[in-house]
Amino acid sequence: MIFKVISVCVLLLAVVVALMLGGVFDTAPEPPEYGDGWWGKGERPNTPPDESIVPFEVQLEQSVFNDLKSRIRNTRFGEGLEDSRFNYGVRPEYMRKVAKYWLSSYNWTKQQEEINTFDHFKTNIEGLDIHFMHVKPTLKAGQKAVPLLMIHGWPGSFYEFLKIAPLLTKANDQSDVVFELICPSIPGYTFSEASHKKGLDALAVARIFDKLMKRLGFRQYYIQGGDWGAYIITKIALITPSSILGLHSNMATTRVPFQTLFLMIGSYFPGLIFSSKEDQDKVFPAGEKMADLLLETGYMHIQATKPDTVGSALNNSPIGLAAYILEKFSTATDAKGRDMDDGGIDKYWKLDELLTNIMLYWMTGSITPSMRFYKENIANSFQEPFYKINVPSAVADFPMEFARTPEPWVRKQYVDLVQYTIMPRGGHFAAFEEPQLLADDIRKFVTAVELRTKTP
C-alpha cells in the first residue's frame, strides 16, 4: 500500500515538474479591463457627475442612541452550556458583561470626538457617496509626503487605522518617509453608501478607489490592505499597474497553479514542496489545516449565499450584532480564544475600541450590505484565473492569521516581491492590533522601493 502511494505521488510530482519546465507557471491571462459602472439608484443620469469633495463629520443622533440603549436593556439572553467556552460561539454570560459595560461605562461621545480629530470627506463615484478619512502629515522643509491608500476588511472599518495613522504620518529614526493616508470605507460599510444594484465586487471597488485617488490628485500611489482590503488592492494593481508605486499586504491570499495537487503531495511528502520546515508547517498537513479553517468560516458560507437573512437579525439586535462581530475578533486574533471564557478578547483588546467599531455598523445600519460583499465575490473567485502581480510588493506574515502563505508561493504571484516579513506576533486585524509592527514594515518596504527610483 505504501509503495502504491509513493508511486502515485512520484508520478504526480513528475507531471508537475514537467509542467513547470514547460513554462505553465510562467503564463498568465490578460488582466481584467478597467471598465466602468453605475451603482446608484435607477439609471445613470445624462448630466455631468458631481465630483465635489465634501467635508463630513461623524455624528450620532441622540434619538438613535436612546433607541440603542432601549434595545440593549430589552435583550433576551440565552443560557450557556456548562463548561462551554467560545468553541460554541460567544458565551451568553460574556454578552451579559458586554451589555452591562455598554450601558454603564462605554462613552460614545469620547469615541466620536476621537474619530472626528481626523478629517473625513465624502464624494460621489459611480453613483455612490464614498466616505474616506484623509490624514495629512506635517512636513519639514523639502520633505515630500508619500500617498498611501489603506483599505480595511470585514468586520472592520476605517476605524482600524486610527492608531496606525499617527505612526505613518511622522518620520522615525529609521526613515524620513512620511505618508499621506487615504482610508476609504468600502461601499456598503459604515459611511460609504451601499450599492443599489447586484454585482458590486472587488474589481468594481478597486476601480472606485482608483478614481478616488485620481480625484484627490494622486496619479501614482502606494496601496495597503488586509482581509478584503488585501483582495481589493490586488485588483487595483491588476487594472491600473502604472498608477501603483507599490503594494503591501498583511494577508496574502495567493493561489498557485495546481495548488490542489501540491497540497495532496505535500500532505505525504512536505519536503518535496517546501524545503523550509516553517513553510511546511504553514500549509501541511493540508487536511488538518483545512478542517481547522472550516471550523472558523461558517459565517463566510452564510454571507456568500444568503447574507440578507442573517442581516435581518443583526440589524435589529445590537447585542446580536456585537456577538457576531466580537466572535470574529476573538478567533481571528488568536484561534486559542475558542477555548477561553472570554474568547481572549479581554487579553488582546480594549472593549471600548471593539464597541466603537460595532457602533459604526449599528448607527449606519450597514451590517447587511457589508456581508453582501461576500456573495458578490466568493462564487466567482473559484473560477478566477491565476493572475500575476507585477508591481513592487511586500507581504507581512502575521503568525495568528487564518491562513498563511509561504514565501515561495507568494513569489509565484507577486513576481516583484521586495519584502516578505515573518512578524513576531499578531493576527488578522494587524493595523488595529499591532499598529507599530505594521507601520514599521510598511515604511521599510516603501523606503526600499523609493531607493530604487533614486539609484541610477
| Percentage of residues in DSSP E strands | 5-15%
Helical element count?
19
User: How does the major sheet shape up?
Assistant: 9 strands, mixed
Rg result: 23 Å
Model regions low in confidence, pLDDT < 50 over at least 5 residues:
3-11, 14-25
Q: Helical amount among residues, as a percent range?
A: 40-55%
- Determine the N-to-C terminus distance: 60 Å
According to DSSP, the number of beta strands is: 9
The residue-averaged pLDDT reads: 90
Supply the helix-strand structural class.
alpha/beta
Provide the succession of SSEs.
HEHHHEEEHEHEHEHHHHHHHHHEHEHH
Principal-axis shape equals globular
Query: Main sheet: which strands, in order across?
Result: 1-2-3-5-4-6-7-8-9
Sequence-ordered SSE layout with sheet pairings:
Elements (H helix, E strand, L loop, with lengths): L1 H20 L31 E4 L5 H12 L18 H13 L3 H8 L3 E7 L2 E8 L9 E7 L13 H4 L9 E7 L17 H14 L5 E5 L2 H12 L4 E6 L9 H10 L8 H7 L2 H10 L2 H6 L3 H8 L3 H14 L13 H4 L2 H14 L2 H15 L11 E5 L9 H7 L3 E6 L7 H4 L1 H20 L2
Parallel strand pairs: 4-5, 4-6, 6-7, 7-8, 8-9
Antiparallel strand pairs: 1-2, 2-3, 3-5
Helix pairs in contact: 1-8, 6-7, 12-16, 13-15
